[in-house]
Amino acid sequence: MNKKIGVYVCECGPNIPERIDIDKVIEELSSMGEVKTVKRYSLLCSNDGKKFLKEDIEKEELTHVVVAACSPKEHENTFMKVCEEAGMNPYLFQMVNIREQCAWMIPDKEEATSKAIKYIKAGVHRVLFHDPLKQKELEINVDVLVIGGGISGIEASLSLAGPNRKIHLVEKTDSLGGMAGKLSQILPHQGSKIKLVKEKIEQVENNENIHVYTSSDVKEVRGFLGNFEAVVKSNQENKEGIEEEIKVGAVVLATGFEMFDLKENPVYGYGEIENVVSALEFEEMIHSEKIELKNGKKPKSVALVHCAGRKEKGYCSKVCCLYTLKFAHYLKDNLPDVDVKELYMDLCLPHKQDQSYFDQAKEKGVEFIRMDEVEKIKKSGDKIEVEYRNNDKADKVSVDMVVIAPAMVPSQDTSHLAELLNLPLDKSGFFKELHEMLDPVATPMEGVYITGCALGPRNIPESMTQSHATSGKILSSLIPGRKVKPEVKVSEIKEDLCTGCQTCLSVCFYGAISYDPFKGVSVVNEAICRGCGSCVGSCPSGAIRSKHFTYYQLYQEVMEALR
Amino acid sequence: MKNQNVLVIGSGVAGMEASLILADAGMKVHLVEKDSLIGGQTIKFEEVYPNMECATCMLAPKQQEVLQHENITLYLLSQVKKTEGSAGEFKVQIEKKARYVSLINCIGCGACYDPCPVSLDNEFEQGMSQKKAIAVACPGALPNVPAIDADNCLRLNGKKKGCNACEQACGFGAIDFTEKDETINLEVGAIIVATGFDQFDVSGLAQFGYGKHPNVYTAMEFERLYAQNGPTEGKLTLREERPIKSAGIIHCIGRKEKGYCSGVCCMYSMKFAHFIKDKAPEAEIHEFHTDLCIPGKSHQRFYEELSKKIDFIRYEDVEVKGNNGNLEIIYTHSNGKRDSIKSDMVILSPAMIPSKGTKDLAKVLGISQDSMGFFSTQDQNLSPIDSEKEGIFIIGCAEGPKDIPDSVSQAEAAAGRILSLLQ
Amino acid sequence: MEKKFKPNIVGFLCNWCSYAGADLAGSSKTDVDSSLSVIRVMCSSRVNSNLVLSALLWGSDGVLVAGCHPGDCHYEKGNYYARRRFALLKKIAEVLNLEPDRIQLSWISASEGKRYAEVVNKFAEDISKLGPNPLTSNPKV
Ligand SMILES: Cc1cc2nc3c(=O)[nH]c(=O)nc-3n(C[C@H](O)[C@H](O)[C@H](O)COP(=O)(O)OP(=O)(O)OC[C@H]3O[C@@H](n4cnc5c(N)ncnc54)[C@H](O)[C@@H]3O)c2cc1C
Ligand SMILES: Cc1cc2nc3c(=O)[nH]c(=O)nc-3n(C[C@H](O)[C@H](O)[C@H](O)COP(=O)(O)OP(=O)(O)OC[C@H]3O[C@@H](n4cnc5c(N)ncnc54)[C@H](O)[C@@H]3O)c2cc1C
Ligand code: SF4
Ligand code: SF4
Ligand code: SF4
Ligand code: FES
After folding, report:
1. A431 forms bridges with which residues in the sheet?
2. Which CATH number fits domain A144-256+411-477: 3.40.50.300, 3.40.190.10, 3.50.50.60, 3.60.10.10?
3. Residue extent(s) of CATH 3.50.50.60 domains in chain A
4. Dist. CA A186 → ligand 2 center (Å)
5. Model-level pTM greater than 0.80?
6. Which of B42, B57, B279 to mutate to test the interface with C (most CBs of C within 10 A)?
7. What is the architecture, at CATH level 2, of domain A262-407?
8. Architecture category of domain A5-133 in CATH
9. How does pLDDT run along chain B (423 residues), one tens digit per residue?
10. Ligand 4 pocket member A492 (CB < 6 A)
11. Which terminus of chain B faces fewer neighbouring Cβ atoms within 10 Å, N or C?
12. Cβ A524 under 6 angstroms from ligand 4
């Protein structure tokens, strides 16, 4: 094919000609071989401008186009579209920034003009090396695998299931509900509707589009957005060891949390001292409506100790302050004479309704005691003494019963699942979100999402909100009948140059590269690659090519800069 | 619900995220923003906790996407004035104020600002700098197109009929004094409210000396002071351009008055200490806090790192006094001791309150406000983003104070709810 | 009078932060030394040693690589890789008898238009002081 390049210099009103001598630019560029035409236009991004560009490309029968105008951040897409409309491959286009990074930052007109010429020449040289890249489209499966049947997994399944979308919900234990299913009540200002969890479980069981696998594990997951394959292994008595392969388009991890092991720190005396119980045990007591000491008597005084494990783990678990308040309310409401003391470090009441719940507890006579840390919980006669430090002074309270609120820690399988799915963990051992601020339920593996306490401690409404968020992400990307369009400017590995050292595998944040042991080389999965080029930079053999940012393309720019 | 149109009110992080997800799904999104730019409060920040990520870097691509998305129609300088109907078939009326500058013709060169004879306090910069009657809120504002402040423009308010300084300066014919306010009628299936928050007004609390002593700043003022695209181009100085040698940051301003903890002030107050240490490493900094509410999984580590460098003081009560141009912070420590320190600068971290138009909007939408003034949601059904009215969702700080990740989660959740209903 | 030496500098800027920072410098009408020619890459991590060394061998008087601040990389970790690679590059430069200061890695965010100008102007000044790339006088390399 004969290459015919068109160069278009936009004036951007007075902005560019004020600082750049466009006639000189045209003169310099016209003499370049393969440049068929060089034209100026007053405002190329206007509707008239776009029309002019399209018609001129057609008239001049151009194969390649260079537009010298504003930053590609402003209008690269605009002009690529015009090229496409004019029948060209849009990747045979290069935008040159002569406004922001030339006219607007170089005050001397002569200097700015020669810089602009340099940049445009570089663009012309570069565009000759462009490949006519194509947008691929991939067929997708819209079904979803949800791992973990706590409230987060339940809510995600309910929200995602639909007439055209099947959900596979895999739960490790023999029943759905997770921690929320074990709670005696949900915070009153959340409606205290513990029934709600049961109702939701029923809805799941009655939903024909949700397939529940209890007592099951996910053994394997392979693939990418729209095309995952997973193996679910049953541990149920009569089905033990039976494996089932399922195909889905997305995976949701909702594996929740566990409780910090109080025996890890002897100061709590947990497991040693009678009537020192964990929050979970206390939930069970409320559930069975039996708040009793080991000797069968009702406690006259109870200490609720916050933040067990906070120092060790390095984070605040956010919900403990609230559920201990729930315990305090329960005690005051059900054992009228009981003396309740809350020993806290900081009261973490970050939701708008929380503080009034605290104020009400105070009104009921709950005593709040600030401490820096618990020094020791020990037995003293019939009583239990909690010794603590506050403002560097030692102090203590003496009570019949101690309830300890332990930190929430990552569930046991987290690191195993992370390995299976190639996901990063954060410093605390929970799954790490793709972007903590702007993408809080996504992961580096496109199509794999995380919700609820698997991401870190949070309460039920927050967990459910996140499940709806994963549902939003999935429903907007996996639409029945639609195809997914992966990134075009991806990397590729040249087989003959790759030595199989696998350096690139460890560098790719998105797990896009895998090793082919038969050929002894690494391969990029173009459906996963985002085109950052990290692997290109790391390959010791120079075997990786980053499309649209190839060595030769960039080299042209370098050479022009040095001319 | 068959109607594929959704109305999103407010274009902060929450409104933008909800719009983008719905638009990607093929829904037609109508995004209504009362200001002349999009992005909400977060674009005022230089960096955001906990990773101190550059806010512009993270938000500008989102803003661009909103501006360019073919399924999003943006109504700037607009407010919702009327709604009727119910889920699936809301009828909505939007009032759109004239901008007097064409979004299509203007290329954002800024040639029109200087010639304009009118100078005003720039509200976006918390009044710390001036802008012209024709201006963008700050460098980098998106869309990068100025708007004319009709109340103050001499031509439009009739004080100097023939003024056309900006029109003369504009090389693109982008200025159009004949543009009229518009009323737009839409039919939508669902409504997402993302109108965000405002800052509690600290000038009512005399004990902190705000307004009286120039070097007492509010949190938002300080954010702009630190911002590279702010009034001082990121130079941290006191009002009289003295470098900062010491600073006191006071948490929980207005918590008692408002009756709730805003949940994010502890973290951003610590972010401020980090900012000051960054630009004035020698400065002595005191954080005056009550409870430290730092519930994110990486937040406590941030605190632990910071506490090696600065002083944390747990206070019972605190006040700020002027002392020959210097400031003195007088406080009662939680151990009961009364004490005081001198400080060049004081930053007040005020409660987050419902944004200004909340009451009117609640009326327009036919939904109620909770006791704190935020839009009510059905928390009792564990549905923190559902308003009482089917088809209307409340997200981000319009629902209550929260940080960016929680706002974004709620935004994505609202999109999820709507798409799920349509399946 | 001898003409003042004007260096030729190549600058690789990552698309998401530093390139946007450079744009902001322009749209805020900040003066920036014209010795530097900008080349846009998606991420600082794309810039392999090959590119930097080619530039130097072909006579560039300095090479700037600029990316997002640590932790801000659009692809999460790219700039850490860039940083690691840089330590090595400086060593290679020494072996080639080039002053290691001819290559520089900087973090410039999208809001740091002013900083972009400062970094570039300072780098251009430093390179001017260093004088022409010694390899240019010996083009056989
Ligand atoms: C004592 C206590 C009281 C609380 N009280 C309240 C309250 O009143 N109000 C409130 O809002 N919140 C409360 N919370 C918090 C609440 O429990 C959590 O927010 C909620 O349970 C989180 O749900 P989840 O689904 O994310 O996790 P989980 O409830 O932990 O569920 C995770 C599920 O995943 C399963 N799973 C784990 N690993 C695997 C695997 N590899 N494969 C398959 N399945 C797996 C688990 O078996 C479990 O069923 C309380 C927490 C505690 C500890
Ligand atoms: C000083 C300070 C520092 C902070 N720092 C951080 C931080 O570092 N990290 C972090 O995670 N969080 C931080 N936050 C919290 C963060 O600002 C909020 O989480 C975030 O702004 C919420 O976004 P939003 O979209 O809900 O609301 P907003 O950002 O308030 O956006 C609301 C939008 O709606 C528009 N609007 C309002 N009313 C109407 C109406 N009636 N009609 C049409 N449009 C309307 C507004 O103009 C605005 O554009 C900070 C908060 C403060 C006060
Ligand atoms: S780093 Fe290069 S040589 Fe090594 S496996 Fe990857 S592509 Fe092959
Ligand atoms: S370009 Fe980036 S995303 Fe693609 S394979 Fe290489 S490292 Fe992975
Ligand atoms: S008409 Fe005059 S006063 Fe009004 S914006 Fe233009 S220059 Fe300013
Ligand atoms: S995207 Fe800027 S350094 Fe990676």
Report:
1. A425
2. 3.50.50.60
3. 144-256+411-477, 262-407
4. 30
5. yes
6. B57
7. 3-Layer(bba) Sandwich (3.50)
8. 3-Layer(aba) Sandwich (3.40)
9. 578 999 999 999 999 999 999 999 999 999 999 999 999 999 999 999 988 888 888 898 899 999 999 999 999 999 999 999 999 999 999 999 999 999 988 988 899 999 999 999 999 999 999 999 999 998 889 999 999 999 999 999 999 989 999 999 998 899 999 999 999 999 999 999 999 999 999 999 999 999 999 999 999 999 999 998 899 988 898 888 888 999 999 999 999 999 999 999 999 999 999 999 999 999 999 999 999 999 988 899 999 999 999 999 999 999 999 977 789 999 999 999 999 999 999 999 999 999 999 999 999 999 999 999 999 998 777 788 999 999 999 999 999 999 999 999 999 999 999 999 998
10. no
11. N
12. yes
C17 touches chain B (CB under 8 A): yes
Chains that touch B (3 or more CB pairs under 8 A): A, C
Domain count, chain B: 3
Instruction: Tell me the residues of chain A between 225 and 254 that have a Cβ less than 8 Å away from chain B.
Output: none
Beta bridge partners of B294: none
The Cα angle at residue A498 between residues A495 and A502, in degrees rounded to 5 = 125
Q: Which of A439, A524, A529, A445 is nearest to A487 (CA)?
A: A529
Pick the ligand that lies closest to the CA of residue A224: 4
Q: Is the peptide bond before A299 cis (omega within 30 degrees of 0)?
A: no
What's the gap in Å between A448 CA and the centre of ligand 4? Answer: 18
Chains B and C form CB pairs within 8 A to the count of 55
> Do B263 and B321 fall into the same domain?
yes
Instruction: Give B249's contacts (C-beta < 8 A, 6+ positions apart).
Output: B269, B272, B273, B285, B286, B287, B288, B346, B347, B349
The topology under which CATH files domain C9-136 is: Rossmann fold (3.40.50)
Helix (H, G, I), strand (E, B) or coil at A425: strand
A218: CB partners within 8 A, 6+ apart? A145, A147, A170, A230, A231, A232, A233, A417, A420
Asked whether residue B297 falls in the same domain as residue B169, the answer is no
CB contact under 8 A, A13 and B292: no
Residues spanned by the domain of B270: 201-351
- Cβ-Cβ contacts under 8 Å between A and B: the total is 213
- What is the spatial distance between Cα A416 and Cα B321, in angstroms, rounded to a whole number? 57
Q: Would you list the domain boundaries of chain C?
A: 9-136
